[in-house]
Amino acid sequence: MERNLPLECACKSFEEDLVLYYYGEMNDTERGRVERHLSNCAACGRFIGDLRRLLPQMANSEAFAPSFWDSYYRQTMAKLARREQKESWWRDLLAPARVWMLPAFGTAAVAVLAIALVFNKGDSQRFSDRSMGAIPQEILADANQLEFFKTMDMLEALSKLEEQVDQNPEPKPERSSRLDGMQANA
Amino acid sequence: MTMKTRHIAAFVFGISLLSIAGPALALQDNWVNLAPKEKERVLRNYDRWRNLPPQDKERLREEFDRWKQLPKDRRERIKQRWDEQRRNRQSD
Questions:
Q1: Where are the domains of chain A?
Q2: What is the pTM of this model?
Q3: According to the 3-state scheme, what is the secondary structure of chain A?
């Protein structure tokens, strides 16, 4: 019956020699010494039997050709290079600025906010009793709305104004009137 | 959500904010740059507008659309005439 235990225990002083014996990496003298021991020691005999049974199976599982490992290495390196390249374009772009960017932008934002508040306040005090927040959103909704409310009183009289402009197209400038008078006198 | 997706989302969000904030700030600038009298006129017109009946509002909107369609030189002549009349009213 085949045992499932991995390896039988061999004599400590012969363990390494038995492995070398299995691989045939001994000179004649040493091989003779090991063979003599094996003929007397059942445990070491079982140990070398286990080596003969197990090592060929382990070797089979790793039987990849060197070309496989070469290809595997090249593919892995290529994948790593692609990944690094893909990740790094924007990091390279921001890398010089990354250290100071956050505090600088934070400071700039606070400064802009403070300046905007100061100037808005000053402006509203100088020009109007109503602050920007109090301006109805209907006025500031878009540029058209502002233009509409700017011209609303004129729009109410637009038709009349058009009639007047059509009847009397261009009021004569003062200089030309004087010239007309001078010409008439002459 | 991957890191790349998060960066793209943040970038798109920032651009959207800027595209919204730009016109809003320009409108505020337009208001700030108005002369005090113009501001007063805008606010006065707005207050009157709120109390107008709907048909008058409609008519004014139509007039405004027509005003925008007028040729530039005609608009300038009308505006000039309007300014003259206003000055005359103020001096009377």
A1: 12-66
A2: 0.41
A3: CCCCCCCCCCCHHHHHHHHHHHHCCCCHHHHHHHHHHHHHCHHHHHHHHHHHHHHHHHHHHCCCCHHHHHHHHHHHHHHHHHHHHHHHHHHHHHHHHHHHHHHHHHHHHHHHHHHHHHHHHHHHHHHCCCCHHHCCHHHHCCHHHHHHHHHHHHHHCHHHHHHHHHHCCCCCCHHHHHHHHHHHHC
